[in-house]
Design a protein that fits this description.
With 291 residues, the chain is of the alpha/beta class. The protein contains 15 helices and seven strands. Strand 3 and strand 4 form a beta hairpin. It starts with a helix and ends in a 9-residue tail after the last helix. The protein binds fe (ii) ion.
Length: 291
């Protein structure tokens, strides 16, 4: 599908393509192995057990780019979700519709060796290694499903920006508190060598107990590590949050107030770790717009 056709696509069916697993080259599979093995080492002792359980349950391993058909046979049995292949970033409406249908859209291309550390558009390693394992967890899977349903309504009410922040601070860059310490579950960290190391080793960032209104009010920078991470206690809390609040009333409240930067700590914050801020003193963000 051409880029133009993707932009014009508005329905789920317009966006779904065939993964064409047989077309991956030896080098594609070798890149997957390099990324997989490197991340296994980086995440060891720092990632949520539910994530590792998901990898094992779906048979996602180092041997090569996963075949969606094989992975889906397992995933459907566990939570009723499936992964569908899409040609890159897709418009909001079919994206939310897919989540509401328990379909997770994943890109099919894999980065090149020159782009091992960072690429702008999510590839199959980010989408599948990062996002898919937790779709085996019932609470997380239900949250993603509800997120899609609310997303469709948010489009009508011009509130997608707030859902994007919620996505950022949970699905992409969320942390979870466990008896053994704070652990990673966000796909943006799980699939990134640099950010996983930063979370594991650098004391710069704040760890704040997750609060829905606080997360919705906090802007983010898309091109660097986070200055604040929000920490949940249980995956069940995510779903309960969306169910328990009048989320659209909350969006209106947040809309009327100034956007917070990720650097600040408020008196009412549940501070789990006050970051040193060292990283941010070295790389100040003054000119880039907050999302
Ligand atoms: Fe993502």
């Amino acid at each position: 599908m051409s880029a133009h056709a993707v932009l014009a696509a508005q329905t789920v069916d317009d966006c779904i393509i065939d993964q064409k697993w047989d077309r991956y080259s030896k080098e594609d599979h070798a890149i997957w192995r390099t990324l997989f093995e490197r991340q296994q080492k980086t995440l060891k002792g720092h990632v949520a057990q539910e994530y590792l359980d998901g990898l094992a349950a779906l048979g996602i391993g180092p041997e090569g780019v996963p075949d969606f058909d094989k992975m889906n046979a397992r995933l459907r049995r566990i939570t009723g979700w499936e992964v569908v292949a899409v040609p890159g970033l897709i418009p909001s409406r079919p994206f939310f519709q897919m989540l509401a249908n328990r379909q997770f859209p994943a890109g099919t291309f894999i980065r090149s060796r020159e782009q091992l550390d960072y690429l702008e558009e999510p590839d199959i390693f980010h989408d599948v290694f990062g996002h898919v394992p937790l779709l085996t967890n019932h609470a997380y899977a239900n949250y993603m499903n509800e997120y899609g349903r609310i997303g469709l309504e948010a489009m009508e009410k011009k509130a997608v920006k707030f859902l994007a922040r919620l996505n950022w601070y949970t699905i992409e860059f969320g942390l979870i508190r466990k008896p053994e310490g704070v652990r990673i579950y966000g796909a943006g960290i799980v699939s990134s060598y640099g950010e996983a190391k930063y979370v594991a080793e650098d004391p710069s960032a704040h760890h704040l107990g997750f609060d829905l209104k606080r997360a919705l009010s906090t802007g983010y920078y898309i091109d660097d590590f986070q200055a604040s991470y929000f920490v949940i206690d249980r995956f069940e809390d995510l779903f309960d949050l969306l169910k328990g609040e009048d989320i659209f009333a909350l969006f209106d409240e947040v809309r009327a107030e100034p956007t917070l930067t990720p650097f600040e700590i408020l008196a009412e914050d549940k501070v789990i770790r006050k970051g040193s801020g060292q990283y941010w003193r070295e790389f100040p963000k003054t000119k880039i717009k907050l999302k």
